[in-house]
Amino acid sequence: MTHDTAESAPPQRSNPAGLVSLIAGILQIVVLALLQALTPALPWFAAQYDLPTRSLSLIMAAPPLVIAIVAIIFGVIGLVSTGRRRTAAVIGTTLGVSHVVVAGLGLVGIMIVGATLS
Question: In three state form, how does the secondary structure of 20-83 look?
Fold first, then answer.
C-alpha cells in the first residue's frame, strides 16, 4: 500500500511566480542593455532637460534595479512554493540578485572615487 504525499508527488508543471521572476530577470537585462546604448547621449539629454548628468545617471539606473527587486521577490516566492518546479525561479532570482550586487558594488566604487577626488 502506497501513500501519496506532497513530498513524493512529482512537481507540478507550472510555477507562475518563478515564471514572473524569470521574465523580470530577462527584462532587466534588456532594459539595462538599452540604457547602456543610450549612455553616450546623456550629455544631450542633460542639456535638453536642464538636468545635471549625475541626476540623469541615477534616473537611468532606477528601472533595472526596480525590475531586479521584482525578480528577487517573485523568485523567492517561487522557490518556497512546494510541489512546483523551481528552475525558472532559481534563474530569475539569480539574475535579480546578481544585478543588485553589481549595482551595489558600482555604487560603493563611485563613492570611493568621489571621496578620493574631493
Answer: HHHHHHHHHHHHHHHHHHHHHHHHHHHHHCCCCHHHHHHHHHHHHHHHHHHHHHHHHHHHHCCC
| Other Cβ atoms within 10 Å of 94 Cβ, number | 16
Q: How far is CA 38 from the centre of its chain?
A: 19
Task: Identify which has the larger pLDDT, 46 or 79.
Answer: 79
pTM of the entire structure? 0.81
Quote the CA–CA distance of 118 and 105 in Å, as a whole number. 20
Among 116, 118, 68, residue whose Cα is nearest residue 94: 68
pLDDT averaged over every residue in the chain: 88
Q: Which cell goes with 8?
A: 513524493
